[in-house]
Backbone:
């Protein structure tokens, strides 16, 4: 059993331009900080192969999907390509599910009808292969839930993670009733994020998972680093920040760091069962990091 906390970053885009092709270095620094693994979600057909290759280089898991912010430039044929790529990926121990998919109603210019079509089509792929989903949730909680219910998602089947969750407790309960974990990261480190912090404090132990969404959603200490000009952009987020982010979760939940690490890892493995294969491929027994 591990004597010090170890962590899983359930959501990081290591293929992002901010990392300038240096994903292996990012992962190496994260491992030094105790982040033993993570999940890289794809965002469009054009980066499926990139994400798969990076996952193999880094020993991380990956998910395949078309992100709602990329739907406007996607072709209908991309959905069939996704289905074929998913089927081919099923024997891969690093493949964990469908994602990042969902709905984004925050950006007004996006085509909502096309988003809905792609969302429902990707839920059908997840259902057909009995895979969990990693959901992008932004001003779209109720519509996402409606789609999940229409697609036959229910407690007792692999559900997934509602990433960067920031809805009401009633909406959170809707996702929890379907078996979803809720993702928390840098946003909860801001004291003014009252809704997120209250929600995290009140949900059951078996629900929260940790994530960075690197290079996005930087924690408060990266948003305006000490000594930086007031108009300086936030520093890119990275998985090595996860243990420090976890301190905030521990404080809000009243957990020790060891308890936070074990519980969030167990929650991640429940939400994304194929993560156990990712850990096994790295020679890490699941029981060693969950205490079971």
Residues:
């Amino acid at each position: 059993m591990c004597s010090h906390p170890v962590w899983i970053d359930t959501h990081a885009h290591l293929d992002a331009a901010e990392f300038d092709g240096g994903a292996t270095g990012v992962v190496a620094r994260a491992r030094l900080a105790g982040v033993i693994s993570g999940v890289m979600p794809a965002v469009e057909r054009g980066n499926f192969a990139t994400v798969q290759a990076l996952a193999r280089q880094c020993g991380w898991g990956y998910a395949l999907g078309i992100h709602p912010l990329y739907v406007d430039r996607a072709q209908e044929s991309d959905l069939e390509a996704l289905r074929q790529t998913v089927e081919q990926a099923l024997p891969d121990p690093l493949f964990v599910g469908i994602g990042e998919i969902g709905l984004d109603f925050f950006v007004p210019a996006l085509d909502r009808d096309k988003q809905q079509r792609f969302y429902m089509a990707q839920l059908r792929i997840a259902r057909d292969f009995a895979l969990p989903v990693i959901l992008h949730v932004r001003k779209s909680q109720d519509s996402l839930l409606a789609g999940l219910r229409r697609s036959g998602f229910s407690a007792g089947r692999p559900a997934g993670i509602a990433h960067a969750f920031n809805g009401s407790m009633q909406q959170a309960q809707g996702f929890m009733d379907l078996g979803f974990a809720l993702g928390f990261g840098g946003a909860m480190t801001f004291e003014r994020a009252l809704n997120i912090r209250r929600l995290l404090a009140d949900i059951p132990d078996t629900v929260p998972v940790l994530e960075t969404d690197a290079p996005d959603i930087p924690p408060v200490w990266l948003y305006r680093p000490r000594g930086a000009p007031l108009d300086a952009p936030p520093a890119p987020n990275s998985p090595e920040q996860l243990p420090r982010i976890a301190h905030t979760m521990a404080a809000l939940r009243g957990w020790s760091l060891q308890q936070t690490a074990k519980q969030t890892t167990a929650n991640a493995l429940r939400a994304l069962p194929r993560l156990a294969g990712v850990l096994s491929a790295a020679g890490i027994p699941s029981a060693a990091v969950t205490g079971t």
Residues 186 and 234 are 12 Å apart (CA to CA). The chain has one domain: 7-278. The first strand starts at residue 7 and ends at 9. The first helix runs from residue 23 to 32.
